[in-house]
Specification:
single chain, seven-stranded parallel beta sheet, 42% helix, Rossmann fold, alpha/beta, three-stranded mixed beta sheet, 15 helices, 414 residues, 14 strands
C-alpha cells in the first residue's frame, strides 16, 4: 500500500510525510522539484531554520525512527508523462496534493510570476486528475486549497455549499469565490477542475480549504535534522513570522492599512493532525468532500499585539509602524467560518496560538544572524495595484528613507 505526498519538500509537505511514515506501516513516497528553495532565494529570502537536502532528510528520518518506509523522488509534476508513470507504477490509495506555488505576493510581482503561478498550479492538479482517472480511479485525492478562495464575504462561509433564497425559491449553491491574488485565482481553478472531474468521472476527493498556517515545529520533528522550513521574508513569510522577524531586525512591527483585516488560522501541528485524519477517514468512493480547515480568527492588529506581548519578556519593545496596505483588500469586514467536518471526525486542536507563537519567536531569535543577514527581504516590496517597474520604485523609495537596506538580488532580478 502506498501514499504519495506531492510537494513533500515544502513547509507542510515535509512534516506531513514524516507523520505518515512514522505512524503507518505503508510506503510513503514524497515528490518535489525543490523549486520553492530557489524561488525564496530569488527574492532574497531563506529559511531561518536550516534544512537538509531531501536525501539527508530521509536518512535523518530513518535514523530517528528506525524505519525505512519513506522515499523521496525529485521530479516536475507539471510534466504529465512523469506523473502518469508515477501513478501507473505505484497506484497509491491516497495522494496528498500540496505541490503548488503558494505565495500570493510572489504571484503579484509581474506577468511572468503570475503566469508561472497559474500554469504550475493548474497543470500539476490536472496532471494528477488525468493520471488517477487512467491508472488508479479509486485513489483518494486530498487537495490543499485555501480559505483565500472565498475572500471575506459578509455571510458565513459554509463548507462547500450554502442554502439561499432567491425570488421566493430556495436553492443550494456552491459558496461564491472572491480570490485576492493571482495565486488565489489559480486555487479557484483547481477547485473547479476537481469538481468537474468528480462530476464526469467520479474522482474521489477531499478539498481542504485551509486557513493561514503558523508554527515552526511539530511533535514528530524531534531534532534539528528533521526541521521544516521557516520563511520570514515579505514574499514567502506569513504574518506571524514576519512580525517576529521585523522585531528582531528593526525593533518594529509593520501594520498594513487599518490592521483590522481578519483571517482564519491554525497551527502547523493542527494542520498535520487534520491532514492525517482526513487520510484515515477518507471521502467515500465517488464523493467530492469540502473541509474548511481552520481553528481561530484574528485581525492583523490582534496578532501584532500578541507578538509584542510575547517579545516583551525577552527585552524587546517594538514600535508599531503603519504603512499603506500592499494588498487590495477590504480594510474592515465581518468574517465567520463554519468548520464542522473535522470536529465530527474527532479533531481537537493541540496547542494554543500563544504557545506556538513563542516557539516561533525563539526559533527566529536563535537564528537571528540569518534573519538580520536577510533583513532587506523582510520589507514588503510587492504592491497589488502596481506593475513590476512600480514595485521596484516602491522598494527603492523605502531604501532612500533608510527603512531597508539595498537588496542586489531583488534589483537584479526585476
Amino acid at each position: 500500500m502506498t501514499i504519495m505526498v506531492f510537494g513533500a519538500d515544502g513547509y507542510i509537505g515535509w512534516p506531513l510525510s514524516v507523520r505518515l511514515a512514522k505512524e503507518l506501516n505503508e510506503e510513503i513516497i514524497g515528490i518535489d522539484n525543490l523549486i520553492t528553495r530557489k524561488l525564496v532565494e530569488e527574492v532574497g529570502g531563506t529559511s531561518a531554520l536550516p534544512i537538509l537536502t531531501p536525501e539527508e532528510r530521509v536518512k535523518a528520518y530513518e535514523k530517528t525512527y528506525g524505519k525505512s518506509n519513506l522515499k523521496f523522488i525529485i521530479g516536475d509534476l507539471t510534466d504529465y508523462e512523469f506523473v502518469d508513470k508515477l501513478i501507473e507504477k505505484y497506484k497509491p490509495h491516497t495522494v496528498y496534493h500540496l505541490a503548488q506555488q503558494r505565495s500570493a505576493p510572489y504571484s503579484m510581482i509581474d506577468v511572468y510570476h503570475a503566469a508561472y503561478t497559474q500554469v504550475n498550479n493548474v497543470l500539476t492538479n490536472l496532471n494528477l486528475i488525468f493520471a488517477i482517472k487512467k491508472h488508479s480511479p479509486k485513489t483518494h485525492i486530498i487537495k490543499m486549497g485555501t480559505m483565500g478562495e472565498y475572500g471575506t464575504p459578509s455571510y458565513r462561509i459554509e463548507e462547500g455549499w450554502m442554502n439561499v433564497q432567491y425570488k421566493g425559491k430556495k436553492y443550494r449553491i456552491m459558496i461564491p469565490r472572491d480570490p485576492g491574488s493571482w495565486y488565489h485565482v489559480s486555487k479557484v481553478f483547481d477547485t473547479y477542475n476537481i469538481i468537474f472531474a468528480n462530476k464526469i468521472w467520479g474522482i474521489r476527493a477531499t478539498d481542504v480549504q485551509q486557513g493561514v498556517v503558523y508554527g515552526s515545529r511539530t511533535d514528530d520533528l524531534v531534532n534539528n535534522e528533521l526541521n521544516t522550513r521557516l520563511d520570514f521574508d515579505g514574499v514567502w513569510g506569513t504574518v506571524i513570522n514576519k512580525y517576529f522577524a521585523q522585531i528582531i531586525a528593526f525593533n518594529k512591527i509593520l501594520i498594513y492599512g487599518t490592521g483590522l483585516m481578519k483571517r482564519s488560522f491554525l497551527s502547523l501541528q493542527d494542520s498535520i493532525d487534520c491532514l492525517f485524519l482526513l487520510g484515515q477517514k477518507p471521502a467515500d468512493e465517488g464523493e467530492y468532500r469540502v473541509v474548511n480547515q481552520m481553528e481561530e480568527i484574528y485581525s492583523t492588529i490582534e496578532l501584532a499585539k500578541k507578538a509584542k506581548k510575547i517579545v516583551s519578556k525577552y527585552g524587546f519593545d517594538p514600535e508599531f509602524v503603519r504603512i499603506p496596505d500592499p494588498r487590495v483588500e477590504k480594510q474592515r469586514h465581518k468574517y465567520s467560518v463554519s468548520h464542522r467536518t473535522l470536529k465530527k471526525l474527532g479533531f481537537k486542536p493541540k496547542y494554543s496560538m500563544d504557545q506556538v507563537m513563542e516557539v516561533i519567536f525563539n526559533d527566529l531569535l536563535s537564528n537571528q544572524e540569518i534573519v538580520k543577514a536577510h533583513a532587506d527581504a523582510i520589507w514588503p516590496r510587492v504592491y497589488w495595484d502596481k506593475l513590476n517597474e512600480e514595485n521596484k520604485q516602491v522598494y527603492l523609495n523605502a531604501i532612500n528613507k533608510n527603512l531597508v537596506s539595498r537588496s542586489k538580488s531583488y534589483i537584479n532580478n526585476t
